[in-house]
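Operator note (shift B, R.M.): manual run for HlyD family efflux transporter periplasmic adaptor subunit requested after the automated queue skipped it. Running by hand, logging everything below so the morning shift can see what happened. Input copied straight from the record, untouched. If output looks odd, do not overwrite the archive copy; leave it for review.
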Amino acid sequence: MQTHRDPHSPQASRHGPAAPRCRALLVALLVATTLTACRDEPRQALGTLEYDRISLPAPAAERIVAIAVREGEQVRQGQTLLNLEAVRTRSANDAAQAQAQRQREVLDELEAGPRDEDIAQVQAQLAAAQAQARDARAYYDRLRPLGARQLVAAADVDRARAAADSADAQSRQAQAALSELRHGTRREQLAQGESAVRAADAQARVQQETLAKLSVVAPRAGRIDSLPFKLGDQAPVGAPLAILLVGAAPYARVYVPEPIRANVRVGQAARVYLDGRDGPLIGRVRMIRNEAGFTPYYALIGKDAARLSYLAEVELTGKDAEQLPAGLPVRVEFE
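Run finished. Output pasted below as returned.
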């Protein structure tokens, strides 16, 4: 017995010739929707609002004796932020200044040359040495004939000759010392004295600068972001005593994903969105890195390359961004 199927039954609709066409239309619709969504999706990057930060390091390992500001306070350029104890540094500065003064006086002495009294003293020493040399030589001259006639021991004659030679040498030494004083200071000695003065003055300036830096002042107008140490703490050399946030307005620090990196350039306009704020802020790309901030490209293959991100900074150009705090999450869309 032959069975006839109803063409309007569910089985006929699922297996009939219209089913492939429906599936093709559905796939085409999904593809078109996906392509439209990809084409209309804005080129965006995520990040946070940031300010330029200035760190003020400790110039010396001294105790904090005064803190004049609070975290979050707005400060002006040149305003005193905190003070360090200056006892040891002031003593080191005084010692360096005294050493520099001593070297300058030594140089003055070299430039002035020997005094007349020094020359007269050496002349007297020369006269005494010459007189002693003449006496020793005369004694040897008297003893030598006696030695030849064997009336005195040969050892006595030898000692007399050695004494005469030694006296002559001392006389020549005194004569050389007198000549040195009369010729004055050598130019090499003057150059050494000048170098010693410059080195001492440089060391004194270093100590004086360190002493001045014990009163920590703001190099620019800004806001106190943090004071890592408290009153009475002794920070090590180079540790940050205060951190300032400077700049008229914050900027957006974002990470640009690899698929849109080729279309982002310096000077490009951008819109910056913040949660809880109606409408975007207008910005401009002021910097974008050429190297990825995360995994290097040579360690990735295939679709993993899309995970690369490039650090960028977007400068906010509107005045309504001047009072925004740092750290807020932002979303940046590039035009």
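Quick read of the result: The domain at 42-50+246-334 is CATH 2.40.30.170 (Elongation Factor Tu (Ef-tu); domain 3). The mean pLDDT is 82.
Leaving this for review. - R.M.
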